[in-house]
Amino acid sequence: MKTEIILVDKNDEIMGKGEKLWVHQRGKLHRAFSIFIFNSAGEMLLQQRAKSKYHSGGLWTNACCSHPRMGRKLENEIKKRLQEEMGIKCRLKEVFSFIYKAKVGDLIEYEFDHVFIGKFDGEPKINKEEAESWKWISPEELKEDVKKNPKKYTAWFKKVFKKVLEREEIKKSFPLPLDKLYKELYSKHGRPSGQWKLWCKRPKTAREREEVVIGSILTQRANWKNVELAIANLKKARVCSMEGVFKAWVRDNNNFSNLVKPSGFYKQKAEYLFRLSKFILKKYRSVERMKKRGLIDLREDLLSLKGIGPETADSILLYALDRPVFVIDEYTRRLVKDHSLFKELSSNKNLKQ
Asked: What fold characterizes domain 4-173?
C-alpha cells in the first residue's frame, strides 16, 4: 500500500499530496515531524533506524520522525507514531519548526519539520520494523560523538539536535545534573580568569588570602572593575592587608575611605573593613590563623560582624580560607532557576542542601 504525504509551501500551507517515495525522489517540500524525548536526568533518547528503512537505515537519530497524513490532526499523529515506533506514551509539546534540505543516498529530504519534545522515564518497547535499537545519551556525550562520528547519524538529526538542546524549554524542563552542568560551563569558559584567577587559586599566599578578604567586602553591590580600582588604591598606599587596613583607618579614616571610593558605598565599606580587620587581628592575629578554627564557629564569628552577611561570609570561607562551603549569590540563584535545578529557592539553606 502506497503512503501519501502532505506537500506544503515555505509557510507550511498545504499545496497537495504525493506518494512518499515519489516525493523524496523529486525533492518536493513536504510536512514532517520530529520528536525528541528526554528523561529526568536530562538525557536524550536515540533510536537506531531499522536497516530495512527506505533511507538512512542503521543510522542513529532522535526518538521518532515521520510524516502526518492528510486530513489528520498533527497532535494525534505524533502520539500515534511515537507509540507505534517506540511504545512510548507521554505528553508532547511543539517547540519550533524549521525547513531543511539534504541529499540522502538517491533521495532528497526537503521537509517543513515540526519539532516536539516530551519527557519519559522508562524503557521503550521498540517496533523492530522501525528501529534496531535505542539508548539514552547525555547532551555532552552526544555532541562529542556527533563531532567524532558524524556518519553514524541521520542528516536531519545533525542539523537540528543542537537547536533543540539550546531551547529554553529544554533547559527549564530537563535540567542538567550539577556535575554535567559544571563540565558544560568549564568546556565553554575554561579556567578561571580575571578576579577568579586569584580567588580560585590553590594554594594562596598569606597576602593573597588577605586581598581576597578585602575584595569580599568591596564587591558588595559593586562592579568588579570598580573594586579593582579600589584594591589598586590600597596597594599603592601599601595598606592592602588586615594590618594595613586597621592602621590606615586609625590614622585617618576619611583618607582611608577615599581609597576605597571607586567601589561605591565607600564610607560603609571602609568601616566594615576596619571592623573586620580589628576583629581578625585581635582574635586570630592573622587571616592565616583563622584556618585553624572550626567551620561552624568561624562562620558564626564572621556573621556577628557588621556588614558581613551570608554571601560575604561564605565568600571569605571558600575563597580566602579554602573551606568547603557553597556561596549563594544572585548569579547562583539565576543559574539554578534558569536550569530548574531546585524547586525551592526561598532560602540559602535550601540551595545549600
From this structure: Nucleoside Triphosphate Pyrophosphohydrolase (3.90.79)
